[in-house]
Every structure is written in structure tokens, then in C-alpha cells.
Amino acid sequence: MMIDQLINATRKAITGWRASRLGPGTTLLVLMMACISHLPAQTQPIWGEGLDGTKVTELAPSGTHVLVLFFVASDCPISNRTFPEMQRLREKYELKGVTFWYVYPNDGETMTTIAEHQASYDRNGHALLTHSPEIVRLGHALATPEVAVLHRSGSSPWLNDYAGRIDNRYVKFGLERPKATEHFADDAITAVLAGRKPAPATGNIVGCSIMSPGARR
């Protein structure tokens, strides 16, 4: 709506002689209120769909301060072999009020595929199917498997504290340790829960590239 239209609409809303008696300050205030009333309402982002088909607009319940996103793929062998560690972390920290999501960001994933995949690897975990770039950008994700640890204060937006490897089990393609000796995700979640900044991510992620326009390059 143009400014002159708003002025006319505002003056019509004020009856007769009162409009002519308005001082400059009052007129400006009424005009500003009219402008605000015509602003479009902000819409919540849709992060993806849960396994029940519900559109997910809130990643965690009110009062949750720490959020963990595991970026995974049903057809990535390294991602699949990392599920036991991801499940261990979920079971450990959900008891402390942390919210977890297994995020399936690749364009080729379907609800049927990820439902079957979750049933095989962690049937009690919450899964999110998304073909939108927003959550990939939120997690600063590049590959699967990868973890993002985020926090928020009150109703403020989520802030990314750690994005990177889950542990150091995989050195490079074709070379892995019998078991991890460094647990980056575990350490990062512990730090954020304690109100500390976790150590920054180190090393290259060994896994499968995310096939989504939101993946960082």
C-alpha cells in the first residue's frame, strides 16, 4: 500500500473534526500504527517432515537449550557404521534435556526409505526428511555423517557451536581405527551443556557428500 493511501485510510478512520485537530506527532504515531498493521506476518520456517508426515517448524520444545543434528544418509556406508555411536550419544544426553534429530538431507531420500532405515538403525530416534537447504545451512553441514551442536537462550535463534566430525574413527577412505580415540561430538555436547565453547572442529570429514543446495562448499 502506498503512503498516500495509508494516510487517507488513517484519516478516514478518525472521525470528522478530530482528524483536523491532530498534531504532527499524533498524526505520525497513528500513521506508523497503520503501517505496522499492514506488514506481512512472519512465518516460521519449515525444517522438514517427521516420520509421521508432520511439518516440523520447531526443532525442540520450549525450554530446550541444546540441540544436536546428525546429518545422515541411508545409502552412505560410513554413516551407517557410525549409527551405534550416534545412538549412544542420543541415549546419553536425551536424559539431560538435549534434543536430537537424524537429518536426512539428500534429494533422493524418501519417507519410506528413511522409515525403514531408522527401524534398522535407531528406531527410537527422531528423523527429519528435508529437501530444503535451511537446516543444512543451520548445521553448516557438508557430508554424512556429520554433527552440529547448537544452543539458544530463551526464544533466541539457534547458534551453532560445533559442526564437524563425530569422532576420529575414520582416518580416510579405506583406513579406520578399530575404535575411536577422540570423541568430538561427545566433548562438544558436554561443553555446551556446561556453558562453555567447545573446541573447534578439526580434520577432514570422511563420508559422503550431501546432495543438497544448502551444503557448504
UniProtKB/TrEMBL annotation:
Annotated InterPro entries: PRX-like1 (IPR047262), Thioredoxin-like_sf (IPR036249)
Top-rank taxon: Bacteria
Gene3D superfamilies per the UniProt record, alphabetical: Glutaredoxin
PANTHER family for the chain: OS07G0260300 PROTEIN, THIOREDOXIN-DEPENDENT PEROXIREDOXIN
Protein name (Swiss-Prot/TrEMBL): AhpC/TSA family protein
Native source species: Bryocella elongata
